[in-house]
Write a structure and sequence with these properties.
Layout (H helix, E strand, L loop, with lengths): L1 H15 L2 H11 L3 E4 L6 H6 L1 H22 L4 E7 L22 H20 L3 E6 L2 E2 L8 H13 L6 E3 L5 E2 L2 E2 H12 L6 E4 L5 E2 H11 L5 E3 L6 E3 L5 E5 L17 H7 L7 H5 L1
Parallel strand pairs: 1-2, 2-3, 3-8, 4-7, 5-12
Antiparallel strand pairs: 6-9, 10-11, 11-12
The protein binds guanosine-5'-diphosphate.
Length: 282
Amino acid sequence: EELNVLNKIEPIFLELLEESNINYIVKNLKVAEIYNLAAMSFVKTSFDYPLYTANVVGLGAMRFLEAIRQESPHTKFYQASSSEMFGKVLESPQNEKTSFYPRSPYAISKCFAHFAVLNYREAYDIHASSGMLFNHESPLRGLEFVTRKITSTLARIKNGEEIILELGNLNAQRDWGFAGDYVKAMYLMLQQDKPDDYVISTGETHSIREFLEISADQLGMEITYAGEKENEKIYDQNGKMIGKINPIHYRPTEVDILLGDSTKAKKVLKWKPEYSFEHLVR
Ligand code: GDP
């Protein structure tokens, strides 16, 4: 379904992304701040559509920077950089100085955009900042992402629907925060005198399995597992199978563990997340 949608929207997107079009908008609106969150944001799908992903995620950011340089140099720019850039992490926790090791076309493209921001800042004195945001979730998060997939599917099962929760790698670990907290950090970055890069994270990491178990707990369900790897199955307290592993959700290269260090954001932006992990799941 996702791929069908992409096939339909790709030509429209490419047309909208013509440089002249973005220049026209930046020139005529002369906005004070641009927040670039535009992306093909599904890591798994980026393996199937690498060129499209690079065009939107990588070149898309540079098109905005170039339009700002040419048409409106005082417009401030926020780039949504991503913890996926740390990929196969080279140190833990990850901070602004940690080297990148991207593990997907999505992450490669985010690295391109990230360095474009740095270069336009240094070369042209543009107020452009990158927020290296770790996973951030909310009730508005798409159902394709593992958090809402788990909470939504378990709630439907709890309500008596005869469906099975099919997941991929349960052992991956993420530093998950609440999107509302993270949007505040984006805003704060553009209110600073100087543009800069900031890691935005909670400093806690949890596995997909933990997310699943806390979600079940919230619904008064007790889950157990049987089998291993792609044969693993998930059961409720009555012994009914409610979930299983489907390798279709495995990625060709996986990001196993992410854990962010937001010391800089706490100090400079005076930012801190308000939501705990349990609160987020609830
Ligand atoms: P990402 O960190 O931006 O890729 O956010 P996702 O929510 O898509 O994936 C987070 C982690 O959950 C990754 O390590 C996935 O491999 C893992 N995962 C396990 N099962 C699933 C699944 O069914 N769907 C998704 N989207 N991710 C899954």
